[in-house]
């Protein structure tokens, strides 16, 4: 006899979700909903990017087994010692962007100059291919950060396509490689989180329309640098360590992984404040504007949080002068960032 049960009843009984939203399906749906007349080039570009994420995730998973951990013997454009996975991640990302045929300009943390590809790509991509690489050998989460601009009107690809304010980005996000790979993406219409199902080989929508909590008593900063902080930053952090009335006398908790992606991932999900302030010695921050500060600032704002520099200016409105420019940064829950702002000298 033929089984008359509707399909969804059977799948419910077996506890199997049969209508999952993959990243590819999500991207196509968003395009139809928000830009029905779009050419689809950004969708194709995001599709090529997800291949890079899967490939990097695969290499990170097998790193310990095939001796990919450790230093490569080279240094990158900002003088950091490169790890083998920095080099491999960079190559994978460059190849994926080149073969997508949708990217004209690429800026990578690992490349001194920008790369201009042949072909008629309409987008410029900025990336930190492996963020948090000092953590790799210990098996701690690292990630890939990216920001995307559409080329300027009439441009055939130049540095001017990326030396622009963060407010001009059309998409941004990161993939964090940990126990599983998590992709957080914004195309300017909120933040959506995807988890890589390694058996299906697909990123699955797991955190739709993610919002950061308004406040949370967690601070995330490398306090080892505090000797070189300006006094008002020292005072702000010292005050967080005092008993908090709202928390019945408990002070803030400190959480610092040392991989920006991991610290931002936690901040997005739990709330709190993450900072890498400029120090009084170099008078500069450590994090790079185009491929660390801007993408994270866009994500945080799109999730309902805030992202500012040490002076309280909106990160996304900074105009970078060089592709590897740095900035002090504060980002996280709106309530926590507003609290920091009250400490900035007028
Ligand atoms: P990268 O590995 O791409 O050079 O980035 C490292 C960054 C960032 O991930 C992290 O927030 C910060 O450096 C940590 O710096 P400290 O070790 O100075 O705390
Ligand atoms: Mn980084
Ligand atoms: Mn890096």
UniProtKB/TrEMBL annotation:
Gene3D superfamilies the UniProt entry points to: 3.40.190.80, Fructose-1,6-Bisphosphatase, subunit A, domain 1 (3.30.540.10)
Gene Ontology BP terms: fructose 1,6-bisphosphate metabolic process; fructose 6-phosphate metabolic process; fructose metabolic process; gluconeogenesis; sucrose biosynthetic process
InterPro entries reported for this sequence: FBPase_C_dom, FBPase_class-1, FBPase_N, FBPtase, Fructose_bisphosphatase_AS
Record-level GO cellular component terms: cytosol
This protein's record includes keyword Hydrolase: yes
UniProt enzyme class: hydrolase
Catalytic activity as recorded in UniProt: beta-D-fructose 1,6-bisphosphate + H2O = beta-D-fructose 6-phosphate + phosphate
This protein's UniProt keywords: Carbohydrate metabolism, Hydrolase, Magnesium, Metal-binding
NCBIfam families assigned to the protein according to its UniProt record, in alphabetical order: PRK09293.1-1 (NF006778)
Record's protein name: Fructose-1,6-bisphosphatase
Organism: Candida oxycetoniae
């Amino acid at each position: 006899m033929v089984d008359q049960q509707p399909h969804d009843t059977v799948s419910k009984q077996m506890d199997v979700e049969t209508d999952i939203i993959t990243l590819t399906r999500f991207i196509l749906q968003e395009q139809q909903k928000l830009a029905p007349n779009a050419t689809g080039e950004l969708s194709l570009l995001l599709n090529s990017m997800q291949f890079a994420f899967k490939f990097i995730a695969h290499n990170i998973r097998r790193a310990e087994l095939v001796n990919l951990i450790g230093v490569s013997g080279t240094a990158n454009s900002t003088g950091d010692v490169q790890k083998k996975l920095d080099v491999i991640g960079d190559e994978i990302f460059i190849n994926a962007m080149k073969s997508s045929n949708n990217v004209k300009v690429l800026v990578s943390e690992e490349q001194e100059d920008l790369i201009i590809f042949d072909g008629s790509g309409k987008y410029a991509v900025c990336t930190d291919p492996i963020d948090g690489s000092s953590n790799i050998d210990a098996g701690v989460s690292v990630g890939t950060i990216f920001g995307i601009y559409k080329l300027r009107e009439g441009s055939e690809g130049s540095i001017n396509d990326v030396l622009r304010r963060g407010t001009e980005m059309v998409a941004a996000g990161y993939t964090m490689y940990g126990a599983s790979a998590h992709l957080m993406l914004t195309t300017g219409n909120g933040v959506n989180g995807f988890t890589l199902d390694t058996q299906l080989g697909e990123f699955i929508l797991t955190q739709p329309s993610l919002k950061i909590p308004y406040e949370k008593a967690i601070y995330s900063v490398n306090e080892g640098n505090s000797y070189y902080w300006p006094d008002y930053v020292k005072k702000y952090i010292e005050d967080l360590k005092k008993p908090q009335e709202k928390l019945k006398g408990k002070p803030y908790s400190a959480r610092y992984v040392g991989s920006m992606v991991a610290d931002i991932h936690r901040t997005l999900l739990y709330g709190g404040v993450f900072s890498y302030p400029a120090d009084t010695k170099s008078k500069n921050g450590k994090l790079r504007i185009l491929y660390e500060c801007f993408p994270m600032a866009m994500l945080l704002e799109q999730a309902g949080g805030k992202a500012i520099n040490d002076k309280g200016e909106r990160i996304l409105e900074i105009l970078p002068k060089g592709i590897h420019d740095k900035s002090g940064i504060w980002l996280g829950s709106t309530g926590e960032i507003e609290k920091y702002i009250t400490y900035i000298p007028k």
